[in-house]
Specification:
five-stranded mixed β-sheet; 22% strand; nine-stranded mixed β-sheet; 33% helix; alpha+beta; 19 helices; 25 strands
């Protein structure tokens, strides 16, 4: 087949395949144009998930008649004043969005520039441009897209349900609203009530993020701010205990542009590696600002990825900024734990009972018998069995738990009791704290191991008789291959025939540890590693596994002095608000919350 020049209509439809992937792509392009036009208010309306109707109205600068006539031509833009693609200060710059949309849908643009006596209107129907006509509009622009992909019906079958497409539109508007807190956004549709994110002042940077991400994020966000060599990182990150099962709660912006960049996502994952397991992801919003010459935004058709000139600088700055902030707030636990605890306390509604019959009561009077003597009727041992609730689960002597006044003033208060041999209840000046003793001690042991490893190595204890642990041959081979790394943590082992290892020394920090369980867990975790996992991450996994085995177990009864010692150690240990698996180590209930439970407030 000979080479031929494609027609303008085919070229536009090919371009539309790159730019217009789904209704959310159209909304993104149109809202970005409104922001580039200096809009302070943007209204988005959709119908059928955006397939039947998309209408974007803004109060921006608008266009003159001449600009309106040219804006639907391919590669026509007002956002580049030269040929340097590294000097881009706007969200859009290619001039492909409007002609691409007009080639696959019915596009109507109504706009008015302040220099014009009235507004102008232009329609593009499947690539066919109409005559420009006068219209009525006071300011800005209104762009309406109807019957998306009607000109290319094959594309319709790739769209999802109206609800799914509507959610994608909502996510696009949410991201753009977070990037510009100074602009008011309104999103409405047939399947949802209108949502308005009002403009927030610069002095309240968390207001817009809280409006979009919810009150839980606002209450558990940590401020992030760092700068190095012209690159600035700022924003807010959630506490490790406020995590999700996926990374959809991570919002990254580069020079105000929402992006999904692997470099930035990897930096976040590395910063939280010490706090969250691999299947949990933090919630955050980070804004990276740097000179336009240091970043290339023209590397993706939808402009959702970027390429940095100095990737190491950007990654290192993000990791260090997040780590410093997490260490600074490491003793905080997410307030969602306390809120969920309060919500779990609900007055018990007793089921309606049958009419009371005293003859069935265990305390019913019995006929007099000489064997009763002078014993009060109704209080014999058989009747008292109804009140037997078992022995207390901890040493409940009052004198053992009388708290000292100075302990109550401590951040985690004074221990009052232990319940179910797992949870410590302490009293603070304005409430109470419930501590998971295993999770708390696990973090303490983990931080001790890290400190010892950085200082002069982890002390080891020699086993009198080596422990032989039988494993799968592949697991045993992996352990032996990592023997040098494990020795740094005080665990000395060697091969003991096929499918077995001999453990000769264990970390003294762990005390009397279950060697077989420790080695088995390490082998299982190593099976999930790959060669690309950095050595630091591998060492952190080893530390976390050992700390879990060396901590106070659930089910161990503690004395009051031991409980208070654990609380005081938590107060001085970095990152003690969460364990190595991202779970909270304690939940705090304020006195006001408790009083509301009982109707005192």
């Amino acid at each position: 087949m000979p080479v031929r020049q494609l027609s303008e209509a085919v070229v536009n439809r090919i371009a539309a395949g790159e730019v217009v992937e789904r209704p959310a792509s159209v909304v993104k392009e149109l809202v970005e144009n409104a922001l580039d036009a200096g809009a302070r208010r943007i209204d988005v309306l959709t119908d059928g998930g955006g397939r039947r109707l998309i209408r974007v109205t803004d109060d921006g600068a608008g266009m003159t008649r001449a600009d309106l006539d040219l804006c639907v031509e391919r590669h026509a833009t007002s956002k580049l004043d030269g040929d340097d693609l590294l000097a881009i200060h706007t969200l859009g710059f290619r001039g492909e969005a409007l002609p691409s949309i007009g080639s696959v849908a019915r596009l109507t643009i109504t706009t008015r520039h302040l220099s014009e006596p009235h507004a102008w209107c232009l329609t593009v129907d499947a690539g066919e441009k109409s005559e420009i006509k006068p219209a009525a509009l006071s300011q800005g622009s209104t762009i309406e897209v109807r019957d998306l992909f009607y000109a290319t019906p094959a594309r319709l079958k790739f769209l999802k349900t109206d609800r799914s497409e509507g959610e994608a539109v909502r996510e696009v508007v949410r991201r753009l609203a977070m990037s510009r807190p100074d602009v008011t956004f309104t999103l409405a549709g047939e399947d949802r009530a209108p949502v308005t994110w009002s403009a927030a002042g610069e002095e309240e940077p968390l207001t817009r993020l809280g409006d979009v991400l919810g009150a839980d994020f606002r209450a558990n966000a940590i401020a992030i701010e760092a700068e190095r060599d012209g690159v600035r990182v700022e924003g807010f990150a959630g506490l490790p205990t406020l995590s999700r099962a996926n990374s959809l709660g991570q919002y990254m912006f580069v020079n105000g542009r929402p992006v999904r960049d692997k470099l930035l996502a990897g930096a976040v994952r590395g910063a939280y590696a010490d706090y969250l397991p691999r299947d949990r992801h933090p919630v955050l919003a980070l804004f990276v600002t740097l000179p336009t010459s240091e970043v290339d935004v023209n590397v993706h058709p939808a402009k959702t990825e970027v390429r940095f000139r100095d990737q190491g600088l950007v990654r290192g700055l993000i990791v260090s900024a997040l780590k410093h902030a997490l260490v600074r707030e490491g003793q905080r636990a997410a307030s969602t734990g306390g809120g969920a605890t309060v919500a779990a306390f609900r007055p018990v509604t007793m089921a309606r009972r049958a009419p009371y019959d005293w003859r069935n009561s265990p305390l019913r009077p019995t006929p007099w018998s000489p064997t009763h003597g002078n014993v009060a009727l109704g209080f014999e041992e058989v009747a008292q069995a109804a009140f037997d609730v078992g022995a207390p689960s901890a040493d409940a002597r009052v004198e053992s738990f009388a708290p000292a006044a100075e302990l109550i003033e401590q951040p985690l208060g004074a221990a009052r009791t232990q319940i179910h041999e797992t949870y410590i209840v302490s009293q603070t000046r304005d409430g109470l704290v419930i501590v998971d003793q295993h999770a708390a001690h696990e973090r303490i042991v983990y931080e001790r191991m890290k400190a010892a490893l950085d200082k002069n190595g982890i002390a080891r204890q020699i086993l009198l008789i080596p422990e032989i642990v039988e494993l799968d041959e592949d697991d045993a081979a992996r352990l032996v291959a990592r023997a040098a790394d494990l020795e740094r943590f005080g665990l000395v082992l060697e091969a003991f025939g096929p499918g077995a290892v001999a453990v000769r020394e264990t970390p003294s920090l762990l005390g009397d540890v279950d060697v077989r369980g420790l080695v088995t867990d390490l082998a299982e975790h190593m099976a999930e590693w790959d060669d690309s996992l950095p050595l630091e991450r591998r060492l952190l996994h080893v530390s976390a596994t050992m700390a879990c085995h060396g901590s106070v177990r659930a089910g161990r009864r503690l004395k009051p002095d031991e409980m208070n010692a654990l609380l005081r150690e938590m107060e001085t240990t970095p990152n003690s608000g969460q364990c190595n698996h991202g779970r909270p180590t304690y939940v705090e209930l304020k006195l006001g919350d408790i009083e509301r439970l009982f109707g005192r407030r």
